[in-house]
Prior knowledge:
Blueprint: E1 4-11, H1 18-30, E2 35-40, H2 42-45, E3 54-58, H3 63-75, H4 85-95, E4 96-102, H5 116-127, E5 130-134
Parallel strand pairs: 1-2, 1-4, 2-3, 4-5
Amino acid sequence: xxxxxxxxxxDGYWNTNLGDDxxxxxxxxxxxxxxxxxxxxxxxxxxxxxxxxxxxxxVSTNIQSKIINKxxxxxxxxxxxxxxxxxKIIKLISEFNTYIELGGSLFELPKKGMGADYSFRxxxxxxxNKYLILGSSFGPYYHQH
Length: 145
């Protein structure tokens, strides 16, 4: 199935976080002819409802989704479940052409190993035609090499 080239998936911290929320609004305003979609809990979508070229893919933040999120973070593996936010993102990536990861401090090096976020990024990158990162910084880091 061909991917939809007119809609881009944007991922960020959609929990009424001024930085990511504002960055998303600027992105949508700057590209009014592009459609964007985000995986977001219904309670956090209210701040975005007036952005005309943004649509939600609602995810749950109930107790089951919180438990699955903790398991995914500990194992670095995405659980195939309707309660998994990361699983929802993979489904969105499979529908659309481009995945944009938006945020700051995206490349924080864990004290031990590469960490779960690195594993998730590898999966997202594998499933996306285009993977873009906007607004990241890195650190803290713990190794000299």
